[in-house]
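Sequence, please.
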């Protein structure tokens, strides 16, 4: 099928793009087009105006500033994947990216597009939730910061206002000593995950868990941070008993069902993937202590 007719706009600055968005009815931003174009071809999305952000250069950047990673909404997934700064300072993001689609989709797909598309099991949405990122929205009225915990308004629906664009995000960097792991289960490599889990673990001098962060996606419309489990892990020995109880808690979360995957199976995956993520994150944290 072909998309419904639309008018194409080609702004060269963020100001021009937000002015267009404010003045046009039923307008959508076009980033990498990896999700929007199929949706338009299937006529799930029928915008009257398409505002192409691909020539808005100021939206594509990546820089580390102290303990914060700043990434522009139009930064390609492939550029983040190949960034040595990301591999070194935010390896969980680097690891997650390897699961996002295929190299062809990552060549075009952007961080901002993935966050705004808000697929329930999107890897980049998961890691942004894990790290507690902040999203910077831009409109003709000005700038608004949205914590990731408040970004999802519903199923594949962000809390951006119709006249707002996502301009960039900031991610607090994990400690260099943290162990990390991203685990997911998808039917085929490159498919969207059914369930995915990310974990960060920092160890205290006595070898117990000093801090833990866990995010699970694929159970509901947005990733869930397991703050109760994160608290319970603090002070625990990073070993099977603690990981088993954390995994059991993950399996108690509500999980949606659809025509392909039952709620029980998603809960099963949540348990298994949480255990694996914690085990691998702890092993990597221990390697750093031993190094
Ligand atoms: C074969 C295939 C496999 C894939 N597998 C995966 C996978 O395993 N995991 C995964 O996470 N994704 C996967 N994807 C999706 C891919 O990651 C997309 O790149 C991503 O979902 C959307 O990014 P995009 O830049 O292409 O955005 P687009 O498709 O251009 O836009 C997506 C949505 O976001 C909105 N939008 C984009 N940018 C902005 C902005 N700056 N401000 C406001 N709104 C904006 C658009 O209007 C649209 O509604 C796959 C895609 C394909 C084709």
């Amino acid at each position: 099928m072909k998309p419904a007719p639309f008018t194409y706009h080609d702004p060269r600055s963020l100001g021009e793009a937000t002015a267009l968005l404010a003045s046009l009815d039923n307008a959508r931003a076009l980033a990498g087009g990896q999700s929007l174009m199929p949706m338009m071809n299937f006529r799930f999305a029928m915008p009257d105006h398409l505002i192409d952000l691909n020539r808005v250069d100021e939206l594509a950047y990546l820089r580390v500033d102290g303990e914060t990673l700043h990434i522009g909404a139009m930064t390609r997934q492939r550029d983040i994947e190949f960034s040595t700064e990301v591999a070194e300072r935010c390896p969980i993001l680097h690891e997650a990216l390897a699961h996002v689609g295929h190299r062809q989709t990552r060549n075009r797909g952007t961080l901002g597009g993935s966050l705004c598309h808000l697929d329930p099991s999107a890897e980049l949405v998961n890691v942004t939730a894990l790290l507690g990122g902040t999203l910077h929205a831009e409109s003709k009225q000005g700038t608004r910061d949205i914590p990731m915990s408040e970004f999802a308004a519903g199923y594949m629906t962000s809390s951006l206002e119709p006249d707002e664009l996502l301009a960039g995000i900031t991610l607090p960097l994990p400690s260099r000593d943290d162990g990390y792991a991203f685990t997911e289960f998808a039917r085929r490599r490159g498919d969207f995950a059914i369930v995915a889990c990310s974990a960060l673990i920092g160890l205290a001098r006595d070898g117990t868990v000093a801090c833990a962060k866990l995010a699970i996606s694929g159970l509901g419309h947005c990733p869930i941070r397991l703050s109760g489990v994160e608290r319970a892990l603090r002070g625990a020995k990073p070993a099977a008993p603690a990981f088993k109880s954390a995994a059991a808690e993950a399996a108690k979360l509500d999980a949606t069902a659809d025509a392909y995957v039952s709620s029980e199976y998603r809960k099963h995956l949540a348990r298994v993937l949480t255990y694996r993520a914690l085990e691998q994150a702890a092993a990597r944290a221990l390697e750093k202590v031993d190094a």
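The mean pLDDT is 96.
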